[in-house]
Amino acid sequence: MQLLDGKKTAASIREELTLAVKNRKENGQKIPHLAAILVGNDGGSMTYVNAKVKACEEIGFESTLIRYDDTITEEELLRKINELNNDDAIDGFIVQLPLPKHINELKVTQAVDPTKDVDGFHPQNLGNMVLNLPGFLPATPAGIVELLKRNNIETSGKHCVVIGRSNIVGSPVSILLARNTNPGNCTVTLTHSRTKNLTEICQQADIIVAAIGKPGYVKAEMVKEGAVVVDVGTTRVDDPSRERGWRLCGDVDFENVAPKCSFITPVPGGVGPMTIASLMINTLRAVELKGL
Amino acid sequence: MQLLDGKKTAASIREELTLAVKNRKENGQKIPHLAAILVGNDGGSMTYVNAKVKACEEIGFESTLIRYDDTITEEELLRKINELNNDDAIDGFIVQLPLPKHINELKVTQAVDPTKDVDGFHPQNLGNMVLNLPGFLPATPAGIVELLKRNNIETSGKHCVVIGRSNIVGSPVSILLARNTNPGNCTVTLTHSRTKNLTEICQQADIIVAAIGKPGYVKAEMVKEGAVVVDVGTTRVDDPSRERGWRLCGDVDFENVAPKCSFITPVPGGVGPMTIASLMINTLRAVELKGL
């Protein structure tokens, strides 16, 4: 069993991006500038956004963090999005999800200019992905594919079972891995809450992508010997043994599944860092696509 | 075994639409107007476009057929599309595919205003479909789903295997059937040219959608007893016994597969008429969405 070390892979992507920024500086080109909107005080969201800002700093991107209280109205948020859409200094921006219940996430997603949508959540970018047209790939699915690629894991002709059909991970990663691209060309089965005989289906998988947010859901008996397992879950579970009182828990019963795998991502340190790396790749692309 | 009679189902949809047009007339509302662009003299394309125009006439829609020689440049075609985008009289329009090789089909698809894209090929509409947002569903996939629905075929929790990942059928129908909607909620496996052990995978399917364009490709041994089989193939094969010298042949070896099925679509008379019915439904929606 080998660990699919997202932390290490993301670090080498950051190195490449640092070099790219250095070259841009030398050539007098625009330095990529990412903005992030954070609403409220959710601990997980703050951690993610801070990690994104930190990645920008490390690479040499400019970054702007915009924070709002969770009492912000949808209208105010949409107004800010419109302002960022029209701000030439900002190459790309994200609105950290989840948002408070009184704000429609899909409406927010659609309000972001597709050419600045570095999270790849806008319908235009999802449609471009379906058609294999240029655009921004959704950050987590793209990070998963990049992790497989940089660890020389063959995807062509492999059977990939995706567990969970969320808008931001399960559904788009199922589309991405089935496309006629490299990496890609998987036979993909998309499973979800209505799926019967999930165990039987998973047992056939060469690659499993677990993205349901249920800690330890994927058990050893669901996994074929030699399978590649990608764990997208990041649920906080109580852990009194830790000073902060919790730990991050993936969707996979790591202890029992790992021995059967050829490759498996750890949680944390697997998909998480790759999502941030994808976001950075997309931000550089945003400025490149504008020809700046 | 029961035939999934697309001709009959489409006829009942046309009746409903005829009534809707009558009501619109009585209320002084705009009569839906569909335009179709046909490039060249391909026999299949001419047949399809004629059938679409005929359906409009039967329902009471207005229709405009625009024909070009296959020497038309991409630029001229894009100019015409732009003209239709800006013509308030036209509620929706299609560009019949395939186009001559010197014209980029994806560029043409992207040039159509998404609010007039009644074929549902534009990335914006495909992305809307992924996110379950309002928009135009691609005509053939939507027709397949409508055919299942109107024949009371349960899809929730069923395992659907889609054969072929084309932009206009295989990929979008796999997305549509996996969504959290009714019909929908299938566990979906998308297979294609790189898929290994296709036979084994198909044998597990409760529903098979065959969309590869290879006559008679799906054999009896690939189909589980009691499965629902939807045949999207329409290949012209030589048939000297017919006066016109050819017949339409589906992707399914109908003679040997049909006896094993609970339901199966014939070719012709299955998915084909449903595609046209979907286009008509989308055209009515186009004018409704504009509030006219």
Give the CATH superfamily of the largest domain in chain A. NAD(P)-binding Rossmann-like Domain
CATH class of the largest domain in chain A: Alpha Beta
Rounded mean pLDDT of chain A is 97
What series of H and E elements makes up the topology of chain A? EHEHEHEHHHEHEHEEEEHEH
Let me know the number of strands of chain A: 11
Unreliable spans of chain A are none
Helix percentage of chain A: 25-40%
Number of helices of chain A: 10
Structural class of chain A: alpha/beta
Percent of residues in beta strands of chain A: 15-25%
Domain count of chain A: 2
The major sheet of chain A is characterized as: 6 strands, parallel
Strand arrangement, largest sheet of chain A? Answer: 1-11-8-7-5-6
Coarse morphology of chain A: globular
CATH architecture of the largest domain in chain A: 3-Layer(aba) Sandwich
Kindly provide the radius of gyration of chain A, computed on alpha-carbon positions and rounded to a whole number of angstroms. 19 Å
Largest interface: A-B, 38 and 38 residues
Spatial gap, N to C terminus of chain A: 44 Å
CATH topology of the largest domain in chain A: Rossmann fold
> Regarding quaternary structure, how should these chains be classified?
homodimer
What features would you describe in this structure?
- Two copies of one chain form a homodimer.
- With 292 residues, the first copy, chain A, is of the alpha/beta class.
- Chain A has two domains: 29-113, Rossmann fold, CATH 3.40.50; 139-272, Rossmann fold (3-Layer(aba) Sandwich), CATH 3.40.50.720.
- Chain A contains ten helices and eleven strands.
- The longest helix of chain A is centred in the N-terminal third of the chain and has 21 residues, at 6-26.
- Chain A is globular.
- In chain A, 51% of the residues are buried.
- The interface between A and B is large, with 38 and 38 residues.
